[in-house]
Design a protein that fits this description.
The protein has 123 residues and is an alpha+beta fold. The protein is built from three helices and eight strands. The longest helix has 14 residues.
Length: 123
Amino acid sequence: MKTRNVKTADLTRAPLDWAVTVAMGMKYQIVGNSFDTSWLEDRPDGSRSRVFGRYRPSTDWGQGGPLISEYMVRFVSCHVGWDACLFGGHGSHGQAETHLIAACRAIAAAKLGDTVDVPEVLL
């Protein structure tokens, strides 16, 4: 699979969601110019169930919101919108116009570094 090296701070849409998927150690499958994966989702009764399909934490609060709690993301207003910082994240930040994108960039940077090799089909 051909990849392209991209700055974590520049990731958006599917490449950003894919990077969070990789950062969290989730399995995925490239499908056309997107990817499918599976993840555990909390149910109202307190149990967890495995869900298959599109994982979009950078745009879906139901998927990205829990990451903000799990990684104890803190936000500060900045020139582009929000600067997300992981508690104890050793300086890992993500800046973006939305809370979810900023948080996802910070998580990806903390786990994968300042750049990541993204499958070209996702770009």
